[in-house]
C-alpha cells in the first residue's frame, strides 16, 4: 500500500474507464487513424510529394502524413484527453470523492499518465499498421530511427500529459472543457505541420509555432518517417533533434510547475 | 497579418497565465508546496483491528459489527470540536459562530432547511472548504492541515454527484478498498448496502437510490473512525431506508462516530443520539433527541371537532381534557386525536416554518 502500488492500481482502473467511454475512444484514440485515412484517400490520385521533375521518387501523401498524425496522436492523447477528462472529473464530483480518500495526488497523476502511455502506444501501433498495410507506406528499417522514435514519442507523450493536467485547471466547469481545450489543440495542429505542410507556412507562422511543443514533436517524427531528402526543407535545414528535446523539456518543466501550483481536488471558493 | 501574430500568443497566455493568477496566493503556496504528504503519500498507520467484517444478522436487515471497537476511544478528546466557526462568502455569512462537539462513538444529526449552512459546515470538517474564523479539530487534527493518514480514518458520503460510473459496483468498491490500510471486505459491504444482486452491474445503469447506496458503501469501505453522511438516504425507497438504518446501527455498535445531515426527521430521531438545528447559519438549538426544542415544545396536542369546526389545544393533561370533552359531548368526540409532537413538529417550530402544526395550535 504505497504511492506507487496505488498508482499502478489507478492505471488499470483508468484504462478500463477509458476504453469503456465510447466518445473518447473515437475522438482521441481513433482520430489520428481516421484523419490519416481521409488524407490518404483524398490525395490518392495526386502525384508523390518531393518527386523529381520527371515524376520519379518522392513519397505518397499517406507517407507524408504519417509523422504529423503520430504527433497529433501524442498531443491529443495527452492534452485533449486529459484536459477534458480531468476537467470533467472535477465537474462531476469524481475528484471531490477522491479528495476525501487517502489517495495521494501523485498516484492519481500516475494513473492518468500511465493510461495515456498505454493507450497512445496502442494507438500509434494501430496507426502504423494501417499506414503500412492499408496505404502501403514504407516504414523505416534502421534501428537508429526507431530509437529516435522511442524517445521522441515517450518524451512527447509525457509532456503532453503534464500540459493536459495543467490545462484542466482552466475550464470553469466540466461542460465547458471541450470548448476550452479543443480550439487550442486544433489551432496547434494547423500551425505545427500536422495537417498543413510546415515548410510551406509563412516564416512568421513557423516562428510562432516553434514556441509550442507540437511543432517539435512533429519535426522529431518527420526525422523518423520521412526520407533524408526532406531534411533540407525543414526551416533550419536540419532535423535539429537537440532542439526537439530542448523545447519538449522546457514545456515539461513549465507543465510540471503549473500542475503543482494549480491542481486541486476541488475548486475551493476561498 | 501582424495582428494575427498578436492573437496567437494569447492562446498560450490564457492557459499559462490564468491558473497562475487565481491560485498563486500565499495560502495556495502553504497548502500546495508545504504539504507534500498529500501528493506523495505517507506510511499509513495500521489499525489493530483485523476482523469484524459486516455480518448480516438473520433477519437480513441489521448488520452486526460487535467484535471490534476502534482504538483511541478512551482519550476523552471529542471526535469533532467546533468553536465559533465562521464561513463567509464575500459579505454573506454562510456559517455564523457555530460551536458544538461530537463525542467518540456518538451519532450527531445536523438539521436545518436547505441553504442553512449544514453542508458548508460539514465540508469544512471534511477538509474541503477553508473556514473564515473559529477553531475546528476533527479526530484531533485541523481539517485544513489533515494529511493522508488523517483522511484514511474518515468516511465521507457527499451529497449526490453525477459521476459517469462506467465501472461495476464490485470494481469500484474493490478499487477504493485499496486506498485504505484496513478496509472492510468488499462482498460484505455490498451485501450490507443491499446491492449483492447488482454487484456486477455498471454504476451508470443503477437507479438513483441504488447509486446512493454505492456512495454509502464507498463511505464505509475504509472502516472509518468518523463517518460523514450528508443526506445519505435521498432517493431511497422505504425498505432501503430501513435497511440503511440497520446498517448505521451496526456501525454505531462498532464504535463509529457519525455526523449525519438529513431532511427526514424520523431518520434523525431513529439514528441520532444528539442533534443540532442550524437556521440561517446559526445554531438555534442543540441537545439530545429527547430534549431538543425544550420541554414546552413537547406538550401533547389534543384535536377534536365540534359542529364541523376543527379545534386544537396543547395540554400537559391530555387525558383530562379528553374526559372533559367526552362529558360535554355526552358521548364519543368527533375527530378526537391526542398526539405528542414528533421531532418533525418540534423542528418545524424551531426553524419558524408556518407549516408547523404545533405552532398553529391555540394554547390554553
UniProtKB/TrEMBL annotation, chain A:
Main location: membrane
Domain ABC transmembrane type-2 intervals: 23-262
Subcellular location: Cell membrane; Membrane
Keywords per UniProt: Antibiotic resistance, Cell membrane, Membrane, Transmembrane, Transmembrane helix, Transport
MF terms (GO), sorted A to Z: ABC-type transporter activity
Membrane topology: Multi-pass membrane protein
PANTHER family according to UniProt: DOXORUBICIN RESISTANCE ABC TRANSPORTER PERMEASE PROTEIN DRRC-RELATED
Protein name as annotated: Transport permease protein
Organism expressing this protein natively: Arthrobacter terrae
